[in-house]
Write a structure and sequence with these properties.
By secondary structure, the chain is α/β, with parallel strands linked by helices. Helix content is 42%, strand content 15%.
Length: 395
């Protein structure tokens, strides 16, 4: 077996979700706050477009990089909404933003290259770097600074081996929205040191408290020859299962990623591409309504967590996650079982209270657990009640 895959652990988020689902199948009343998936249904016009595509016979292969019509529409979206101008030939469509990230990391990295990853991080990013033969180098984003990435931290982490940095704002798992001044400083440093930038902007619409999403590529135009933007349809239009993501960047890099994808998956499912094309022409009413509801849930969760003894949480300003700090409870026990870290915390929490959350160790912070508020208010109320009951029972 390839030693690289031996070093890669399974996804803890998917593992927790699967365990919760298995308990549900046994008839257990499980509340899951683990998955990063909006609970809203995909908009009807998007579903109708996929059905029409199937009925019209659009069920064959497309170009590996996606339908030209969809790539043009994505290029238009990037220009109109993000201030980024690309020809459609510099855009590719993949099986979710996750595949875009892996494609880019794989084609950009050589054996032994360093990849800068702000920490806490999305759990798949360092594993992608490892699979490409690169070394993940974690750039600390302290909780006391709102989990924000700073240019100073990037400069400290840089070495001559640094090949690229992955920027994710709004951020999973912290909910941090990076400051435009810091992003500008980071972008200029990357230009100076010739560091390639991958900007993961999948949560770009999920911002609150008057904050604004800024693309580092728009803030630092001279960066664009050594940068790519990645996004997709899963979050903005609640299309997680449709598996449509996209990347845009220098044509030679996108062409290389296209060649890699041609040997990995070929094109994204054709009906899903037609659905994505329909999503791009929707008005903002669906997404705006969803974000208003997420904001309501976010504020509820922040206020509710404040009432639970022994835990705390930095207020998130984007995405739909909260990191809850629980390390003050380590060493305590319940029913003869000791909580010693974030993994045992979540395992015992699921066992005792049938509440699924993700251990922070999956994201590089063993002091926290992560919950998602992309679920119903009823589930959040019940779930946080169960969390408080669990915490109060620890001795």
């Amino acid at each position: 077996m390839n030693p690289r895959i031996k070093a890669v652990p399974p996804s803890l988020t998917l593992a927790i979700t699967a365990k919760a689902a298995a308990l549900r199948e046994k008839g257990e009343d499980v509340i899951s706050l683990s998955a990063g998936e909006p609970d809203f249904d995909t908009p009807q016009p998007v579903k109708d477009a996929a059905i029409k595509a199937i009925r019209d016979g659009h069920t064959k292969y497309t170009a590996t990089a996606g339908m030209a019509s969809l790539r043009r529409a994505i290029a238009e979206k990037l220009h109109a909404e993000n201030g980024l101008q690309y020809d459609h030939t510099s855009v590719m469509v993949s099986v979710g933003a996750k595949q875009c990230l892996f494609n880019l990391i794989f084609v950009l990295c050589e054996e032994g290259d360093d990849v800068l990853i702000p920490s806490p991080y999305w759990l798949s990013t360092p594993e992608m770097a490892k699979l490409a033969g690169a070394n993940p180098v974690f750039v600390p984003c302290p909780e006391e600074k709102g989990f924000a990435l700073t240019a100073e931290a990037v400069k400290k982490a840089w070495t001559p081996k640094t090949r690229l940095i992955i920027v994710n704002s709004p951020n999973n798992p912290t909910g941090a929205v990076y400051d435009d001044k810091e992003l500008t400083a980071i972008g200029k440093f990357c230009v100076e040191k010739k560091i390639f930038v991958i900007s993961d902007e999948i949560y770009e619409r999920m911002v609150y408290d008057g904050r604004k999403h800024h693309s580092i590529l728009a803030l630092v135009p001279e960066l664009r020859s050594q940068a790519a933007v990645v996004s997709g349809f899963s979050k903005t239009w609640s299309m997680t299962g449709w598996r449509v993501g996209y990347a845009a960047g220098p044509k030679e890099i996108i062409d290389a990623a296209d060649r890699f994808q041609g040997h990995a998956t070929a094109n994204t499912a054709t009906p899903s591409q037609h659905a994505a094309l329909a999503a791009l022409i929707l008005d903002d009413s669906f997404t705006d309504g969803m974000i208003r509801e997420f904001d309501k849930r976010r504020r509820f969760c922040v206020d509710r967590i404040k009432k639970i003894p022994g835990v705390s949480a930095a207020e998130p300003h984007g995405a739909f996650y909260i990191l809850i700090r629980v390390d003050g409870l380590y060493g305590k026990s319940i029913g003869g079982k000791k909580v010693s870290d974030s993994l045992t915390f979540c395992e015992i929490l699921l066992e005792k209270e049938k509440l699924a959350a993700v251990p922070g160790v999956a994201f590089g912070t063993d002091k926290h657990i992560r919950i998602s508020y992309a679920t119903s208010m009823g589930a959040l109320e019940k779930g946080l009640n169960r969390l408080e009951k669990f915490v109060r029972a620890l001795q």
